[in-house]
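Hypothesis: this fold can be encoded by more than one sequence.
Test: take the structure tokens below, design a sequence, compare later.
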């Protein structure tokens, strides 16, 4: 197999839809899995007519870690004291 024919699963509409829509992976995550640029995945999503999420939709169902929530709370408390 030629090197330029390596990992091209992002070109497969079903695989890409599975990763992006059903698994709710981000474009950045998919690009990392495939070893390609973010713009490559964005291009193929558009080419396959897979609607991309906006920022608020992409954050749905995701939660900050306990450590991050505590850090944000401390920052907020410090701002309120000023």
């Amino acid at each position: 197999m030629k090197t330029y024919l390596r990992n091209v699963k992002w070109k497969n509409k079903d695989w890409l839809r599975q990763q992006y829509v059903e698994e709710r992976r981000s474009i950045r995550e998919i690009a990392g899995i495939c070893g390609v640029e973010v713009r490559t995945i964005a291009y193929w999503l558009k080419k396959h007519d897979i609607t991309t999420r906006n920022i608020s939709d992409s954050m749905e169902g995701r939660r900050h870690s306990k450590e991050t929530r505590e850090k944000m709370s401390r920052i907020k408390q410090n701002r309120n004291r000023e």
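The helical segments are 13-22, 27-34, 38-47, 55-59, 66-81. The chain has a mean pLDDT of 83.
Hypothesis status: open.
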